[in-house]
C-alpha cells in the first residue's frame, strides 16, 4: 500500500464530494487504501442512499461503480509528482460503457466493502471493475464493469 497514493485518492474523493455536483452523494465512502490501479473503500448504507424499501438504491450502486473505478484509473495513471502534491488528481476520460450486476440486496445500516481495479489501461481505452461486498456476510452484492476512453493520456 502506498500511503502517499492513499492520501491523494482520499483528497481527490473529498474534493469531488465537496463540489456542488452529483458526486456529493458519495460522502459516506471512506477510502481505506490505494495502490497502483486499485482502490479499497468502505461505506455505511444510510437513508440517503436507499430506495423506498430501505435497501441500497441501484443508482447509488451504479454511482459507486462509476466513481470508484474512475479513482482506480486515476491511481493507475497518476505520476509520482502528482502523488507528492497530495491535493487532487484527475485523469481526463469519458465513459464508454458501464454495467452493474445486482446480486443481493443491502439493508440500511449495512457496511459495504468496495474493491475497484484498473484491469487494463491501454493507449486510449481503460477497462475497470468494481466488486461490492456486504462486510458482515462477506457476500458479493454487486459487480460492475466500466470502460473509459482516455482523452489526454
From TrEMBL:
It catalyses: octanoyl-CoA + H2O = octanoate + CoA + H(+); hexanoyl-CoA + H2O = hexanoate + CoA + H(+); dodecanoyl-CoA + H2O = dodecanoate + CoA + H(+); a fatty acyl-CoA + H2O = a fatty acid + CoA + H(+). One of its GO terms (cellular component) is nucleus. Pfam families: 4HBT. It is found in: Cytoplasm, Cytoskeleton, Spindle; Cytoplasm, Cytosol; Mitochondrion; Nucleus. GO terms for molecular function: fatty acyl-CoA hydrolase activity. InterPro entries: ACOT13, HotDog_dom_sf, PAAI_dom, Thioestr_dom. Residues 54-138 form the Thioesterase domain. Keywords: Acetylation, Cytoplasm, Cytoskeleton, Hydrolase, Lipid metabolism, Mitochondrion, Nucleus. CDD domains: PaaI_thioesterase. One of its GO terms (biological process) is lipid metabolic process. SUPFAM superfamilies: Thioesterase/thiol ester dehydrase-isomerase. Catalyzes the hydrolysis of acyl-CoAs into free fatty acids and coenzyme A (CoASH), regulating their respective intracellular levels. Has acyl-CoA thioesterase activity towards medium (C12) and long-chain (C18) fatty acyl-CoA substrates. Can also hydrolyze 3-hydroxyphenylacetyl-CoA and 3,4-dihydroxyphenylacetyl-CoA (in vitro). May play a role in controlling adaptive thermogenesis. NCBIfam families: unchar_dom_1. Homotetramer. Interacts with PCTP. PANTHER family: ACYL-COENZYME A THIOESTERASE 13 (PTHR21660:SF1), THIOESTERASE SUPERFAMILY MEMBER-RELATED (PTHR21660). Belongs to the thioesterase PaaI family. This is Acyl-coenzyme A thioesterase 13. It comes from Oppiella nova.
Amino acid at each position: 500500500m502506498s500511503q502517499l497514493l492513499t492520501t491523494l485518492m482520499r483528497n481527490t474523493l473529498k474534493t469531488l464530494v465537496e463540489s456542488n455536483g452529483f458526486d456529493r452523494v458519495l460522502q459516506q465512502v471512506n477510502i481505506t487504501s490505494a495502490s497502483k490501479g486499485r482502490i479499497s473503500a468502505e461505506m455505511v448504507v444510510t437513508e440517503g442512499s436507499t430506495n423506498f424499501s430501505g435497501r441500497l438504491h441501484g443508482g447509488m450502486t451504479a454511482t459507486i461503480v462509476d466513481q470508484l473505478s474512475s479513482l482506480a484509473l486515476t491511481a493507475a495513471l497518476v505520476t509520482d509528482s502528482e502523488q507528492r502534491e497530495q491535493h487532487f488528481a484527475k485523469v481526463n476520460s469519458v465513459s464508454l460503457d458501464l454495467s452493474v450486476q445486482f446480486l443481493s440486496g443491502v439493508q440500511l445500516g449495512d457496511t459495504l466493502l468496495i474493491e475497484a481495479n484498473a484491469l487494463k489501461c491501454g493507449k486510449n481505452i481503460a477497462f475497470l471493475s468494481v466488486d461490492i461486498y456486504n462486510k458482515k456476510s462477506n457476500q458479493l452484492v454487486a459487480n460492475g464493469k466500466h470502460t473509459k476512453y482516455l482523452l489526454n493520456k
